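ESCALATION

Customer reports they have been waiting on this structure for their group meeting. Please prioritize. Original submission:
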Amino acid sequence: MKLDVNKLFVVFKATPYSSAKDVFSGDSMTIQQFATKLKRGLDPNMIQGLYPSKRAAQIVANKLLKKRSNTPKTKVPKKKKVTKGFALFSNSVMAKDKYRINTPPTIIYATKKQAIAAIQRWEKEHDKKSNFKIMTYDSSKR
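Update from on-call: job pushed to the front of the queue and completed.
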């Protein structure tokens, strides 16, 4: 088979997040185009190989994607964001004004026990009595 330098097919290495188009787009390129891509920042370590025919490149790309899909993916459980619960406020904030303050509380605790533990941690870190008070808070009312 004669090598046509105006038709090279590049296959990239598959990452856990790459799609079929990321591995092999199906477009051919010339040696000059390939050299330009390398000059513009294409990482040579990400290249699986250069192939003279589209069919050969597609076979290799399919093998890479198949191998990648066989590796087990671990799901990270998402934490539920608490929208109702207890929040820490300064002693100067009155209960009727807790939804009108400029900066809402960033952490809302599900239980009052968690809020008390947070105050105790803060007092232990700063070696002084805190000026926090615990109030019920619903972020949807803001």
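Sent to customer with the following note: The mean pLDDT is 85.
Escalation resolved.
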